[in-house]
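Appendix B. Chain record.
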Amino acid sequence: MQSLFGQQMIDFIKRSDIEICYPEVISVEPHSDGTYTITNSLSQVYISTAAIKDNFSIKTFILFSIIDTYVERIYPELEGKSYLRKLLKLEENRSLDGQVLHDSFRLYKLLRNATIHNTSSINLNDAGDLKIRYTFNGTEYEMEITSVGLGYQNTLIYDLIDPFERRSSTYSNAFRLSLLTMVRIGIHKFNDEKGNLEDMATRDTLPLATGRRYRLDQTHIERRGNLVVVKNPYSPNPSIASFSGVDYTFTLDGHAYFVPSEALDKHTISLEKLKDWQMN
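Structure tokens predicted for this chain:
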């Protein structure tokens, strides 16, 4: 259950101008002749009533407070413990979602500590790119990250606490791993008490495209033995295919599924693998 503090912070972010990099979600209407009509964008739009994106300290405090509260909700025994203690506890969970939470907390821990204790170490240029460098207890702490990387980092924390749509755990993990990979691409330098980011849970290729997601209004499927075939697959324009993906929603045997095109092989998926994409 979401804590009152966590929900209030999420509501505040929705009303603020903090950079959130969710994919643009586009509705696609299929026709019987095999053509498609792009109907409208399904992306959430919020009216900004709190201008804080240029206040790095406030933004960092809010986002770190959210993830810190989330960690304490999962591990109540860590309430009031040091951030390093929490980080070490998170390190014990080697599942994919555990690794993503650990890495997100680790990155924002450095940002939070610099904001609270080493303000003079923070250097933001006009483009929003960030450089931090300071020494504490003999350890050099350093981060260089682009404004785009920061935006994806904000999005990752937001999605951990308040996913923007209903989906399976498998989809959420793949999506968040993609966000974390985009964060990592934006980081040019990093060092803390654990060293660099060589053990960060990222991938060379994105599990899911994070730029744009197309959604079919109606997905037609056919069951062939132990396989399920999408009969009306949609292919984005090749010029945008590298950062776009397609999501297929359908019902089979009374269960609802939300399947990304990245999980299909020639528009086909086995019944065994399909289980991973059953909506929660």
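Further analysis of this model is presented in Appendix C.
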